[in-house]
Automatic annotation (TrEMBL), chains A, B:
This is LacI family transcriptional regulator. InterPro entries: HTH_LacI, LacI/GalR-like_sensor, Lambda_DNA-bd_dom_sf, Peripla_BP_I. One of its GO terms (molecular function) is transcription cis-regulatory region binding. PANTHER family: ALANINE RACEMASE, LACI-RELATED TRANSCRIPTIONAL REPRESSOR. PROSITE patterns: HTH_LACI_2.
Length: 342, 342
DNA sequence: AGTCGGACTGGAAACGTTTCCAATCCGGGT
DNA sequence: ACCCGGATTGGAAACGTTTCCAGTCCGACT
């Protein structure tokens, strides 16, 4: 019952050999069979286990990767974290979670904190991106991988997904099902996802050969169910007095979509009978909801895994060229746009 | 554009003062006004920021706390992590996430890994607990706080909740609403939550003055929606041929509850009309579900915060007496047990 | 038998920080 | 003018590990 942990030096003394040999014997290279055995025995007797800090100091490697998001607790981020952890853990890396806050400046500060060297790299999902943040990423002392916008022009490694194209898939899907009066429920336009999804919607509606009777866009205060309900009410209200009621709502994420469904129910509208609803992100929430939610999967776990793979490559060779990986969106059709009749 | 980060020694040379004074000036105690200014200036010019590893080695403190759960990704754990992070971050602690795997042995191994000293403490949520795990916790070189079972008798700090009492609240609630044919949908009995919730259910049903017409228990293979659906089908099937159909299902967590609702819908049963359903954990999933889910809140975020507070106390004084905190369960009534008629 | 080379070992330095201890400085009281 | 003490300062050690370098040993080849 030693109150203090055994050190390598103590193992060395116990085994009656030098510190250097002890290290070699335990770490594994260039030690004789006999030496290894002898040292192992001594280490076992003392219950030795190597100190991570001492090792880190000497090796200049912490075996830790930071994962920074605006809000741990958001299901999408959680799934990414799971993906990241899944890839990194088998390689001996620990994952440190951090929160960026929701401004680009606070994210930049977090990136700057990498200077203290507590981690070998960082995977970050900035809600908003500006030049300062990009500059900070470029001058970071360890590899940084961005999940979100593709940043090839800045020489930053990133994992992106074409959420604009994803919204396009959703729009075409509801058009295919004969809907012509379409509402788009988006989140704040000054966020990265908000901006690109708006772009995707406008492009899809404006595309060659698309015929609609009515198109409305409404912006929610945030990407949450609560804000989704409020904004969806406005959307339906706006559409009410006038002639044709909306028969489809394309939402910028699953939470907003669920908000839309709840608002529709309040008005006595059935989903998908009166109004079809699509979400985005393919969260568990949407999967188990009633009706289950048609949603555009952006491959959260896949993006997390991809980011982790990129990171592993960069930690091996920090000077390698920045790479971009794109994960394709995929429409998952479920009950909220299809029930009974085709 | 120095390719390598500045070290304290470089700052000292630049300022033309000793290493010791430089450290004091930046860290803050026992340095003259002039010295502080001089060193600060030099540090700023070099873009110096202290190396976390060097500091950790010397101070024997990592400013990191581990959070270990079976499965990051489970909404309940995520909320706890958020609570933990919320309390710890302002004190300068980082949170390292780790997965225990679902056996007691693998959790024990994780606790043993604390010997490498990469972290100042650990908050762990063991799915299963055995003597080895407890022993490992007791001999850990840093404070360990357990969320789950109260472990006062072993001198282990823990944050617990009386989920048995919580199930009791749910049972009484459905009884109050006139339901008499009650099914209990539980998860595996060899898990900590499974065991105590079963105990709570049995106690509530067996309590003085409780009148029921029918009581059934069904065990799902896991605490998931998918397993919940399967087990709920068995529950309803079992009840079918015979006379009175179940009019309430008490589920051991929200995921199982949602599984029960889906299974009920398959059979054409309305919720809460034909069958009332309660969950446990008060997850966002349940909050936004349709119908919104009556659920027993075990205060996930609150337990996370409490565990973090305990941890802060222990890192200040590792030898202080182990403490136990209990967070009371609270029934949150929503649509799945009440709609229209009282 | 003498030399060469490979395999192994030990000494010592280095990673970047904080802090103990001794030394220096300065002003004020005698 | 001298000494005392508080306030600052610098030197050096220490935290625990890995790894460079030089040295030792031993078998094998000429």
């Amino acid at each position: 019952m030693t109150s203090t942990r055994a050190t390598l030096l103590q193992v060395a003394e116990r085994a009656g050999v030098s510190l250097a040999s002890t290290s070699r014997a335990l770490h594994g290279t260039g030690a004789s069979r006999a030496m290894v055995e002898r040292v192992r025995a001594a280490a076992a007797e003392l219950g030795y286990s190597a100190d991570a800090i001492g090792r880190s100091l000497r090796m200049k490697k912490t075996f830790q990767i930071a994962f920074a998001v605006a809000d741990i607790g958001n299901p999408v981020y959680v799934e990414m974290m799971r993906g990241i952890h899944e890839v990194l853990a088998p390689h001996g890396y620990r994952v440190v979670v951090m929160t960026t806050g929701d401004t680009a400046a606070s994210a930049a500060e977090l990136v700057r904190s990498l200077n203290s060297g507590f981690v070998d790299g960082m995977v970050v999902i900035p809600l908003r991106t500006d030049d300062e943040l990009i500059a900070e990423i470029q001058r970071a002392p360890v590899p940084v991988v961005v999940i979100g916008r593709a940043l090839s022009e800045h020489g930053v490694s990133s994992v992106s997904t074409d959420s604009a194209a994803g919204i396009g898939q959703a729009v075409r899907h509801v058009l295919d099902r004969g809907r012509r009066r379409i509402g788009f429920l988006n989140g704040p336009l000054d966020t990265t996802p908000g901006a690109s999804r708006q772009r995707g919607f406008d492009a899809a509606i404006g595309a060659e050969g698309v015929h609609t009777e009515r198109v409305e866009t409404e912006i929610a205060g945030d990407f949450t169910v609560a804000e989704g309900i409020v904004a969806a009410r406005r959307l339906f209200d706006r559409a009410s007095g006038q002639a044709p009621r909306l028969d489809a709502v394309v939402a910028a994420n699953d939470l907003l979509a669920i908000g839309a469904i709840r608002a529709a129910r309040e008005l006595g509208l059935s989903v998908p009978g009166d109004v079809a609803v699509t979400g985005m992100d393919d969260t568990e929430l949407g999967r188990v909801f009633l009706p289950s939610l048609t949603s555009v999967s952006l491959g959260s776990a896949a993006r997390g895994r991809a980011a982790a793979e990129l990171m592993l490559g960069l930690t091996d060779d920090p000077d390698q060229q920045a790479r971009q990986i794109a994960v394709g969106p995929e429409l998952i059709v479920r009950e909220s746009t299809t029930d009974g009749a085709a």
